[in-house]
Amino acid sequence: MKNKLIFKFIALSLPLILIFILELILGIFNYGENYNLFNKITSENNTEYLVMNSGISKKYFKNTGFNSDNQSDLFLREKTENTFRVFIQGASTVVGFPFYKNGSFPRILKHRLSLTFPDKNIEIINTGITAVNSYTLWDLSDKIIAQKPDLVIIYAGHNEYYGALGVGSSISIGNYPAIVRSYLKLKNFRFFQLFENGYSKVFKPNEKSKYTVKETTLMEVMAKEQQIPYNSDVYNAGINQFKSNINKALDKYASNNIPVILSTVISNKKDIKPFISDDFNENKFDKNLKSNKSEAFKTANSNAKAAYKMGQFYLNKQQDSAKKYFHLAKELDMLRFRAPEKVNDIIINELSKKQGVYLLDSRKAMQKKSKSGFIDNDVLTEHVHPNVKGNFILADAFYNKIKEIKILDNWNHFISYDEAFNDISITRIDSIKGKFIVQDLKNSWPYKLNMSGTNPIAQYNYILKPTYEEKKAINLYAGREEWQNVMREAYHTYNNNKDYKNALKVAQSLISEFPEQTKVYEMAREICLKMNNRDYANYYSKKINQLKQK
């Protein structure tokens, strides 16, 4: 009997032992990917920092030609008592598309908090990755917890359908969150990567390969289910996916006593017509609309394009009616690059009620500061991504929320909205580059459905006599120059021309990108002295001393 039990134990354990040995061998030969979220780097004064691993996106994207699009925010490997550490989770809006660098709301927030608390080491670590959704947020949560955050900020919800592993995505393994989460756990093991790679080679699809980002927009590459009707099974699967994944991530943070600010998401309903709508008789609808016939209202309540036309009809007559129909048009839009309102409803009515979670309704903040009262082109670049003003409004809302929840004491250096707005440190070059990106996006699929499978001619090609900033922005966009080299040249150019305001913005952008280098703080201090801004110069002197003491 005893021998039988031993034999049974060995038989059951053997597969696990073999897998363990295989995992060791694969590790020795460095096969596969090591999906660390952070990598270690050492500064000029031998201080150890961590920075986000740009290769982490390989875990979520496969065969798309897409490389990680994320920020590189350094933070101390060993957290000090004087450190206030915030991790921000999300996708392209969090990353800062299309401005990146100091145009993203996390960088704007860090700059303002650092000035508000000059004696503290403020760390805002942006873990956003373009085109991911709640699966990635859940998957990264354990690695974020390991870094002992004082606060986590989540801004997400637009990518539940077409983001990596989403229910309508070209990169999907099904509509069951528990199975997808198990798959992501297995991806951490090299033996599973070996199995997955082998399977992909043996069972190659016979059909023509999908588009890659070299051939068309990332949006088209990711969108498999291009028509997802309102309240359909796929539609509801996306809602359930978001709810399930964020619920589990929030539970992890709560069990580790980490507070979370959870934000609603914003989208442009007024200036962006539905991408894909059912066909309808437009001429008949227009006549019925002008005649105020009930048939027009009936059509508008079931058709995305008709609802959008109804919103335009009421825009200068009845703003409430216009808002109603613009909202309905977005909800009925079958190409779901804008989150359904149910996502915000779940955030407000369910997820924000959980332990340790604080709600930030970004929609209200945006509407309050928008000139028209709509969340439109005044604050957004296109369908969902904020412009510089919009990113500042988001950063301002989070800044005031942090103050409200009293997670930091001593706000004696509180910076007002107007003062902070005048101190946004995005460079003119980065701003112009962002403008080029948006221009090209709006000349691509899905803004122009006939552009499917193609990329447009870059709009900067039409500029006959580009300015200095336009030339540098074009070189950055075309990949002809490195960002840090452009910034250093721009700093000296502005400084020599006594354009100190723009020189300071460049220096501040370099500080955000290279916070461990004393040289960039010295550059900022030099300009502040030339501007006779002693307080700002003293601030940078203090930061230089703090760096030297680490």
Protein model, in words:
The chain crosses the membrane at residues 12-32. InterPro entries: SGNH_hydro_sf. This is SGNH hydrolase-type esterase domain-containing protein. The chain folds into three domains: 38-165 and 228-269 and 338-425, 3-Layer(aba) Sandwich (Rossmann fold), CATH 3.40.50; 282-332, no CATH class; 429-549, Serine Threonine Protein Phosphatase 5, Tetratricopeptide repeat (Alpha Horseshoe). It has helices spanning 2-28, 92-95, 105-116, 134-145, 177-186, 190-202, 218-222, 233-255, 282-290, 294-300, 304-314, 319-332, 341-349, 362-369, 388-404, 417-421, 428-441, 468-477, 483-496, 500-513, 518-530, 534-549, and strands at residues 38-42, 48-52, 75-76, 83-90, 121-126, 151-155, 260-263, 357-360. The strands form two sheets. Strands 5-4-6-7-8 form a five-stranded parallel β-sheet, sandwiched between helices. The protein has a three-stranded antiparallel β-sheet with strand order 1-2-3, with no helix packed on it. It is α/β, with parallel strands linked by helices and 550 residues long. The model has no long low-confidence stretch (mean pLDDT 92). Helix 11 (304-314) packs antiparallel against helix 12 and helix 21 runs antiparallel to helix 22 (534-549). 43% of the residues are buried. Strand 1 (38-42) and strand 2 form a beta hairpin. The termini are far apart. It is built from 22 helices and eight strands.
